[in-house]
Design goal:
Helix content: 25-40%
Number of strands: 12
Strand content: 15-25%
Shape: elongated
Largest sheet: 8 strands, mixed
């Protein structure tokens, strides 16, 4: 057995130790099959992957039945995993300006041929929404030996009655508004909207937006003594200056706070959108030579 297998098996044993007798051993076999890479050579086929771990035929059937219809829940396994991590005393939460980061996101498992699957998720290559099993993930950001490691806190699946991605995000934000403590801040990407975070009463959050993002002030401009129709919306606020088609400039209207700084993306020099799919004559010549 490789040296890394022993601590891995010890961790998996701690995770399933609280399950019912029989289910715990069967789930141990199944989890070991997941983490040791047995699914890769068998292209995701569960039964051949379980057989490749060296267990008998009956153990393979018990592992599948325990995973498919056993008495266990993902939340129980996450609690056991967090308890094991705390006992090891190696994981430390990362803090930024005294706040601990809690990342929230959604991820799909595309399954176009699964019958009865109603949830869909946008696929960037297909440029349309495809049938997928959508999961919502919540994790605390920390580190082990200086390496950033996320500690899962919750895994949610779309509601069968409302299998939309929007409903799952609403449930995630509602959970964060209830569980986020005073020294934590929620981190989300552009898939979550500022309005949705405010409607869910999330106390603190950091949301990644596009560089051409424009907001409006929550009050109207004073037009006392001026002619014309009074404004119905607040003045636009543009955190970053930009140009439209390299001609019309849009100046910055709101200075960034001292704690923030503008930082170029690592792919800022690369073409975006449809231009990224076009090959220039220079690039073609370089490849051919």
């Amino acid at each position: 057995m490789p040296p890394v297998a022993e601590p891995t098996m010890s961790a998996l044993t701690s995770i399933v130790s609280g399950l019912y007798v029989g289910t715990n051993l069967a789930m141990l076999h199944f989890l070991w099959m997941l983490v040791n890479g047995s699914l890769l050579p068998h292209r995701g086929a569960v039964f051949p992957a379980l057989q490749s771990t060296g267990i008998g035929e009956q153990a393979v059937c018990r592992a599948w039945k325990a995973f498919h219809s056993g008495m266990w829940q993902v939340s129980e396994l996450i609690v056991a995993w967090n308890r094991y991590i705390q006992e090891q005393q190696q994981w430390r939460p990362r803090r930024y300006e005294r706040y601990g980061a809690v990342a929230v996101d959604t991820t799909p498992f595309w399954w176009p041929k699964l019958e009865g699957l109603q949830s869909k998720y946008y696929h960037s290559i297909a440029e349309k929404a495809l049938p997928a099993v959508i999961l919502g993930l919540v994790a605390q950001i920390g580190e082990v030996a200086g390496k950033r490691v996320a500690l899962p806190c919750s895994i949610l699946r779309v509601d069968p009655k409302d299998p939309s991605e929007a409903a799952l995000k609403k449930e995630l934000l509602g959970q964060m508004s209830r569980t986020l403590n005073d020294v934590e801040i929620m981190l989300v990407d552009a898939g979550f909207k500022i309005k949705a975070c405010h409607e869910a009463d999330v106390p603190r959050f950091l949301l990644r937006l596009a560089k051409n993002f424009t907001a409006r002030r929550n009050y109207l401009q004073d037009t006392t003594g001026k002619k014309g129709k009074p404004p119905t919306k607040g003045d636009p606020v543009r955190p970053l200056a930009r140009k439209h088609k390299e001609n019309l400039p849009f100046p910055q209207t709101y200075p960034l706070p001292a704690e923030l700084r503008q930082k170029a993306s690592v792919t800022d020099h690369l073409p975006k959108g449809i231009l990224a799919h076009r090959r220039s004559k220079q690039a073609v010549a370089a490849v051919t030579t």
